[in-house]
Each structure stands twice: as structure tokens, then as C-alpha cells.
Automatic annotation (TrEMBL):
Residues 117-138 are annotated as: Disordered. It comes from the Bacteria. It holds the Pfam family Asp23. Belongs to the asp23 family. This is Asp23/Gls24 family envelope stress response protein. It comes from Nonomuraea terrae.
Length: 138
């Protein structure tokens, strides 16, 4: 569904997907957000990324009316980040971006932290991606 902004000079339609992308990008801009989406969505997104494409709206659901929008976000926080502070910063950035770019009043931004990214997880991936060495002895 698209929302329409009607003025005396014409009509502007903004698709819900546009609002979701703006909200997703605004959330990702905040330091401490590691990824967006719940576990299954992130796994699907990483496979999509391998074949050339990703969804900036992953982990974002929006409900858009004529003049207002409500946003729901699923995200993964970096370990060590204060989650209440992270949620406040994400909420502020999303509201600012959507209101500025779409002209819609954001009535709420609900944030669900699905996981915490641990630094060891990156080291484990690096170790798995290293090529296997020849055996040292025969």
C-alpha cells in the first residue's frame, strides 16, 4: 500500500517499502547495531548477499497511514553496547529520517533485540574461511 500526499500542485505517493528502507538504513547508521533481522531472516539475507543482493528493509516492518507511520525493528546488538541507549539512539534516528524524508509523523518505533553479536563469532568465521594447510607430516 502506498501513502499519498495531496497538495494543490499534485499528488505524491510513497510506497510502504520506501518507508521500510529508510527506517532500515537509519537504524543501521547507529553505532552498536551489528545486523538487522531475526535469526532466520539474517540467514536468508546472508545467502542473498552471496548471490548478489541484500535487502535494506530486512528486519523492518512498517504500517503506513495517510499521515502517520509505525515502525517495528528486529536487530542484533554489538556485545558491550548498552541496549537501552542503543534503542533510544536507533529510535531517534529512525524517527528523524522517516519524518524528514517522507513527511510522515512517526507514532512509534518498536525495537526488538533478537541477539548479541560476540567478537569471537568473527574470529570463528575467519578461522573457517582460511584455506586448509598441507599436512606437516606424512
Amino acid at each position: 500500500m502506498a501513502t499519498s500526499l495531496v497538495t494543490e500542485r499534485g499528488t505524491t505517493s510513497i510506497d510502504d517499502g520506501v518507508v521500510a528502507k529508510i527506517a532500515g538504513l537509519a537504524a543501521r547508521e547507529v553505532s552498536g547495531v551489528y545486523a538487522m533481522g531475526a535469526g532466520a531472516a539474517r540467514a536468508l539475507g546472508s545467502m542473498r548477499g552471496m548471490v548478489g543482493g541484500s535487502s535494506v528493509a530486512q528486519g523492518v516492518t512498517v504500517e503506513v497511514g495517510e499521515r502517520q507511520a509505525a515502525v517495528d525493528l528486529d536487530l542484533v546488538a554489538e556485545y558491550g553496547t548498552a541496549i537501552p541507549d542503543l534503542a533510544a539512539a536507533v529510535r531517534k534516528n529512525v524517527i528523524s529520517a522517516v519524518e524528514r524524508m517522507c513527511g510522515l509523523e512517526v507514532t512509534e518505533v518498536n525495537i526488538r533485540v533478537d541477539d548479541v553479536h560476540l567478537p569471537e563469532q568473527d574470529r570463528g568465521r575467519e578461522a573457517q574461511s582460511e584455506p586448509e594447510q598441507e599436512p606437516r607430516v606424512q
